[in-house]
Structure formats: structure tokens, C-alpha cells
Amino acid sequence: MSVDLLTVKPFEICSIRPPTENSSLTFRLTRNCYWNRCAFCPVYKCGARFSKRGIDEVAEDIRRARLIDELMFEQGIGFPIYHEGGYEKVARLVERIEHARWEAGIIDDGPPDEAPADLDPKLAWFLPWFKDRPGLLDSFQNVLSWRIGGSKTCFLGDADSLVLKPAFLKQTIGLVKESFPTVERFTVYGRTASAARLRSFRELRAYRDAGLHRVHFGMESGSDRVLALARKGITKAEHIEGLQKTREAGLSCSVYVMPGLGGMTLSDDHARETADVISKAAPDFVRLRTLQIFPGTPLDGLRSRGEFAEADEDRVVGEIRTLVESIDCDTVLMSDSATNLLPVQGRLPGDRPSMLARIDAYLSLPKRERLEFSLKARISSFHGQYGGLSRDIYARIAPFLKGGSLELGEATDEDLVSAITLIREKLMP
User: Thinking of the domain 191-364, which architecture would CATH place it in?
Assistant: First the structure.
């Protein structure tokens, strides 16, 4: 029986999710972040409020996703294989659905409220990443990217699913598997504070028994002084406790570390203490996310008042060197963020020599060569993230484009720093 276009509706996907879950099917079990106080974080700062969703709401979203999946295949999207060309077909299909609903007199909710007129343009650039109310096209694209990616992974958001009882996750995972039987891996975001204080070992084990595989933790730092500065609401000791307990319960741990978060003043302490937490907790993955200060965040306020001195790129690279040199456990370190300057990654301890060699090769360059390296690396990252250059970036580097190549011989150091800063302000972590 063919799918009635009038019954097709969007479901609440997770706009914010780990990069490894970009091709995952996503469902929101909570909305936004109940903590929402981190000094560096711009997400959920435009009026979004935290709430838990009921199982009936989640079940309805799973049903809607299944209907979208069936309709795509019925319309030839995915036959004989799923591929990138499906996105154009999906866009046309969504137009047909919206037109059919309009002709039938069905009035759907309009787009989300527009951004405040006084919102900083630098923050407005990122709003498409922070959608609180994704639409029908977003829903179709999520299902299609999941199919193209192999149809095996599912991410259950938003910011900390460990606030939910294991029974709720078990019921949700069962519903997903019933509708999407090819899914093999389920992951969530979690706070180490929730793992340490809110959940017992028995409850964490129950998550695993329910079918959860991995928890992504925003650790950021292992330094108590940096954690206090960043308003993380957690201590070094609780980081270790939460991570160790989660791993012992049989769940994979992926932690996110933020080089630069200590600024110039706490840089050394930030790197050393973070390496110590990782060494003691031994997470499966450590992912680097170089600090980017977003407009309107508490950290931006500290910087503007002269109370936070931002670490320069060389200092940040030095912090990463300390991590690579000091981490004493078996773990995989990943540099999978556009905010990172160097692609330093590998398995520790075995890949330590090659990782240090890459870092030292950069640090040994003369200052001018480091600046040129940074600009070219940032341009490449931006192009990779957005598929091209924005007009303002192109205008900034246009004087140094010769025959399609970037020729920086006539650029001053100030020109390079200005262009690097402009690009970094637009890179999404």
C-alpha cells in the first residue's frame, strides 16, 4: 500500500550530535541541556529550554521516521542503492508533500522564530547548526544520510541522556529496533557528573543491557581550576569516577577535550591535569576540540573584560603535545574537528613517536611559515566543512590569489593573522 503524502510529518532529529554520528538515525529523548551553564558553549542559548519527552512522543517520532523511510524507497530513492544524488530527489519530494498538504488545507507550523535582530552576526552564522525545531526536509535528510552511511547506527539525544532511567532507554531502543532492524549501535551524549553522581553502577550496567553501546562525554579539561573557570559543574575526581564507572559497566567512552580552554594563564595546568584524567580513566577515544570563543558566551565576556587571555595557536599546539607525550593508557586520540590546526591522531602509546614528530615539525618552523601554514590549513578546513568559501573570507584572501593559487609573499603578518581569525570564527567545532 502506497504512503499517503498527507500523513508524512517531520520528527525531532538531533541537530547537535557527535561527528561520528553524522550518518546516524537520530531521535530526541530530551530537548536541549539541563545544565546549560558552560562558559564556552553557545548551544541552547537562544531561548531553548530543557525538557524530557514522553515515550509516546518518542514512539510517534519513530513511526514518522519509518514512514519517511518507506516513502523514499517507494519513490525510487534508494533503489537500487542509496547515494548522494538522493538529496536532490528528497528536496523535490518534500516540495510535493508540502504542496499536497497546502492544497488539502492542512496548516502546518511555520518555521522557527527568526533570530533576534541584535544577535551578533558571528553567532548568527552558526544558527543553522543549532536548530531547535528541524523541519520536514531535515527529517528526510537525516533518514537518507543514515541509509547512505550503512543504516547501522542510531544516536539518542539531546545533551545528556543519562538523566533518563535505563527502562526508558530500553523501551526506546526496542522501538527503534522494531522499526529499523538493521541498527546495530546506539550512542548518547552524557555528563560525567551524571555518571558519577546520578547513576549507580547497576544503572549504568542496565543501560548496556538495554542495548546502549557508547557514551560521548564533554570532559573538556581535567584541571579543577579550568573546570571552575568553564563552569562545568564537575571536578577532576568526579570526571575520573564517572568515566571509570561507565567503562566498568561495559559501555564504551568517548571523551572530548578542549585545548586552549585554560587560556594563557592555566595552559600548562590544563594540559597536564587533562592527561592525568585520561591516563587514569582510560577512555576508548579522546577527541580534540580546540577552543573557539563564541559571541555572547560567559567566556567572551571574560575575554572582553581582560579576565581571560586567549591561548595563541602555538600554545594550543603545545598543549596537544603535552597530551600526546603524557597520556599513559591505551586509547585512540582523534583530531576530527575543523577547529584543530594539526591532524594529530593515532593510537597511544604505539603511535606516540609519529604524532610527536608531526607536532614538532610544525613548532620548528619559523614564525612566518607557521602563519602561512595556519592560513592554508584553515582555508582547507573551512572548505571541507562548508564546501566552499564565504564571501567575506574570499574577499579577505582575494588580493593574494594569483591564477587560482594562494601566493602569500606580499601579505604582511597582520594580513595573515586577520584572515586566520576571520576563518576560525566561522569554523564549527
Answer: Alpha-Beta Barrel (3.20)
